[in-house]
Amino acid sequence: MTTVSLEVTGLSCRRGGRPVFEGLSFALAGGELLALTGRNGSGKTTLLRALALLVTTEAGQIRWRGEDVAGDREAWRHRIAWLGHLDGLKADLSVRENLSVAARLRDEPPDRIDHALASLDLVPLALREVRTLSAGQRRRVALARVASSHAPLWLLDEPLNALDAPSQAALRAVLGRHLAAGGLAVAATHAPIDVAGARALELGR
Hints:
By secondary structure, the chain is of the alpha/beta class. The chain contains 6 helices and 9 strands. Helix 4 (113-119) packs across helix 5 and helix 5 runs parallel beside helix 6 (165-180). The protein starts with a strand and ends with a strand.
């Protein structure tokens, strides 16, 4: 029997007084990725932000292994790795320094940084300041920050944005390894994320 790790029940959220989604429910077990699809404005980013407790929901509950995540926000912060529309990088720091700072902020050992850099073809750029990188390179650094974390749940907003074909393939491989190790992911996307364990939830129908 598959053990559910993340369970969302009856989740409702409004934006500007307008309902974005109502009564949304789903469950995810280790090794699964939920791809959020739908047109612009359908609520994909809002749902990701709700899962990260960055926006207030009107109703519903988010549970991790049976416990309401709102009961211990600090513990929940350590269980998720976030990738938003903005890369959230320090332009004056190098690629490696950005990942090292992120590890310190999460109170995690930096033991996964080298593997994350190699997985996303960032080793040649590791000492470069982020301000000197292209949009696609910066996106890979932001993804490496997620991949180097110890968080079991990845929340990814349009992770394929700005990535060329080889970088998209590298991301799918990184995601595949995360899921194979028992991790989970929820990703808002307009493009297919073809990895084992992926299924889709269309919003705004």
